[in-house]
Design brief:
Radius of gyration of chain A: 26 Å
Number of domains of chain A: 3
Domain HTH lacI-type (chains A, B): 2-56
GO molecular function, one term (chains A, B): DNA-binding transcription factor activity
Keywords (chains A, B): DNA-binding, Transcription, Transcription regulation
Order of helices and strands of chain A: HHHHEHEHEHEEHEHHEHEHEHEHEE
Largest sheet of chain A: 6 strands, parallel
Number of strands of chain A: 12
Helix content of chain A: 40-55%
CATH architecture of the largest domain in chain A: 3-Layer(aba) Sandwich
Shape of chain A: elongated
InterPro entries (chains A, B): HTH_LacI, LacI/GalR-like_sensor, Lambda_DNA-bd_dom_sf, Peripla_BP_I
Oligomer: homodimer
Organism (chains A, B): Micromonospora jinlongensis
Strand content of chain A: 15-25%
Amino acid sequence: MATMHDVARLAQVSVSTVSYVLTGTRPISQATRNKVLAAMAELDYQPNAMARGLASRRSRILGLLMPMDERGLGATETAFVTGAAAAASAAGYHLVLSPVGGGDPGDLRRLASQRMLDGVVLMEVQLADERVTVLQEAGVPLVLIGRTGDASTLSYVDIDFDQTVREAVAHLVGLGHRQIVYVNHSAATLASGYGPALRTRDAFAAAMTGHGLDPVMIAAEDSAAGGRAALAAAFARAPELTAVLAMNESAIFGILGELSGRGLSVPDDVSVVSMVTSPQVAELATPALTAMTSPGSALGRIAIEALTRHLDDPGDHRHQQLLPCALEIRGSTAAPRRRQPMGADQ
Amino acid sequence: MATMHDVARLAQVSVSTVSYVLTGTRPISQATRNKVLAAMAELDYQPNAMARGLASRRSRILGLLMPMDERGLGATETAFVTGAAAAASAAGYHLVLSPVGGGDPGDLRRLASQRMLDGVVLMEVQLADERVTVLQEAGVPLVLIGRTGDASTLSYVDIDFDQTVREAVAHLVGLGHRQIVYVNHSAATLASGYGPALRTRDAFAAAMTGHGLDPVMIAAEDSAAGGRAALAAAFARAPELTAVLAMNESAIFGILGELSGRGLSVPDDVSVVSMVTSPQVAELATPALTAMTSPGSALGRIAIEALTRHLDDPGDHRHQQLLPCALEIRGSTAAPRRRQPMGADQ
DNA sequence: ATGAAAGCGCTAACAG
DNA sequence: CTGTTAGCGCTTTCAT
């Protein structure tokens, strides 16, 4: 393994010169730069990351902390990761994914205090997230995906749930639907302070009220069975429902299954819109689902860019940005079928 | 940020003593160890990972290289990652996931040559995988998940596809099925040398032949549409089929959709078994799928254990191990319905 | 535009 | 059982 000294000797310059052609922190004449580059190539030189990190006090490694639960990573999260990785690489950083469970904050504290990460992007942030505290105390620059309850002083990028819900509701109302049920995550998830669930809940209530409609909302366990149960509950609460808006990738198939089990067809009898859903998942269903597609890879890219910008210029301030999901119309939405002859119910 | 010197001064010992209580590489009296530990606690000391790595020439970081494609990580892969992370942590290593695409081997070469990874676990290994060559040339210890074509000199842990297919076929044959179609990954995937697709293909042919049956095999694109097309092809090739064995999580929903589209019920008309499938995905379908569940977390744990064992004792040799998937019977398999009255076709 | 040299914080001989 | 000290390979003043 060639070291910088070897390169310097072969190129007949000092080690500092070699270092400077590498970092570009001071002008080097074209002639000597070429000599050095040639020597590096000849020796197949690779700088030692540890030595560089020790001397410069910057590892050039960024951490992406993601809670890995049993359900796995959906296409949405994956797009996020690949977007982040590409941005990091473009900025000259390595991105390492750390599957630190929300379980042990000590683990995280250790990682952060060992100066092995220059900065961190936090995924799946809770409204009250102790990881944020831990990292701030350790003095690690961080960017959130999602927001804590009071994120006013933090950098974050998040989905614009308000706008997303409004657009989804507008699509359904535009088709003529009046009885729309929102299927959210579970009551336990709501209670735990999961931001997306809470924000969409409020946004749905506001959007429906804005249209002069009654917002019916149901919580569903994250499973097919949960979806089935939720749909049953939905019909109990709103027998005339003609559309379901759901934000629960695990429950959506249960909802569809229960619908067809009741002899109801999508979209003729009931329209379905799935929120924060990847095209891949949307295409799994028959018919393919009209969905609000999350801006996964853009979120990842923007988060990393904000972080590296701050790292390379500490004067750079907090970055706060919301991105809406995009409405992609597929086969699961249509105008409602008239259940009863016009005026018959009067 | 307290350093080792600070700890040594406070504890009134030398830095080396502090270092040795940390590494445990030489005996320390209980008395001084306590002094040192107390000083560490008081200063909230955390060793600097870079300095330690530079001096010891070991980063204590393990890399898990996983290609992240658009489809995302299934529950299977996630279980694998969490199993690996737990094992690494137990062995005193950090595990970083690196989403290096198969795209740029230069990227990987750089990572490896910078001595930032003590060892590497490679996921989704192809039969001919240049990443293996790159890492071997860089002298990075590695363990494969999956196998290259000639893996005789390498360490690996993989699914026992032969055994898994045999068990799945035995289950169906045991129920009375004779016309079983195997839906594999796409022809392109086969051609690219994707081990699991090739090994299961051969295993299926062998298993069916062993039962005196005709092995009908169909390739399917990794999508719902691919699954639908595959099922159509299957009926064209084997009109009397009563069971489908599939190893394609993306196509399976298309297969089920097409089945119900043709008015065929599962499992009464056609039984379905999904291979290398997580319980989570199996439960998404209606009825829930009988599946061969992959030993995800065990694979991850064993791979990391083999790697750390080798790192801590270079004398330790290559580790090669196969683990079968477990048959989990759910609602998608049953005895075939008699299509024609007994003896009527003679 | 270049060189010399002092660390960065830790490990691991080498000495007792 | 403990202390002294020479690096690990690089960055970054300070000189010139």
